[in-house]
Hints:
By secondary structure, this protein is an alpha/beta fold. It is built from 11 helices and 7 strands. It has a 7-stranded mixed beta sheet. The longest helix is centred in the N-terminal third of the chain and has 16 residues, at 3-18. It is globular and about 60 Å long.
Amino acid sequence: MTVNQQAEMLEELVRLVQASDKYRFISSELVRDLGRKELAKRRNLKEAVKETRTKLHQIGSAYQEKPIPYRKWMVELNNLPIDLHDQTTHHNLQKFMAMHASTNERQSILPAFFKGALGSLAPLHSILDLACGLNPLALPWMPVVEDIEYFACDIYQDMVDFLAVFFKHFHIRGATSVCDLTTQVPEAKVQLALLLKTIPCLDQVDRSAAGRLLDGLQAEHILVSFPAHSLGGRSKGMLRNYEARFEELVAGKRWQITRFEYPGELAFLVKK
């Protein structure tokens, strides 16, 4: 097969994968990178498309059981008071966060999680939220200054667009962007980077990505967390395995690390 034929096959794979509503808004660069690897391993295009979709499900769409109605949410968002601490705002943001498994799991511990893990850094002036999901909506529960500078990135374009509307409505300084953390390290210089329940997903794609990210981030502190149970509710051995994985990633680093354990989530605050 010629180089041109290989390139054409890869673009056909990207087209076929993103033809599905489930994967339509995922970063094309991530789809292309996964597809390139699968084409090299599989017997034909059909198998490569299937395995690429499987990977994308594992790292992204498994956390969104139902399609998220971002257009409807944007209308609702623009009708909210321009006050992050208004009770109506809180109610609606929690309703939104319930649609994504990662943020929904954290709702019962929201105040305790952020105040406990980040209290020693308060008040925070700048945050980089990596593979953010809907976590930026938890901003009212974080110990931050009023004019916090917040950067958020994820693999979903429609999610990132919604978060941009959220930032605009509440006059939050910062930016949102699509990013593939397996191939790039965001360059923002911040007080804190959030890497919440993300490393297991990165490991599904490239086991070396998490180490590159931790080393390369230009953040004074990084809050890393791991889920205490699977999406199906299984927890046997997970905390032990994830703690061992984290220890492997920071072995030999002269970083100060503080451990936190909450119902459903294990966290580590890293001071670089």
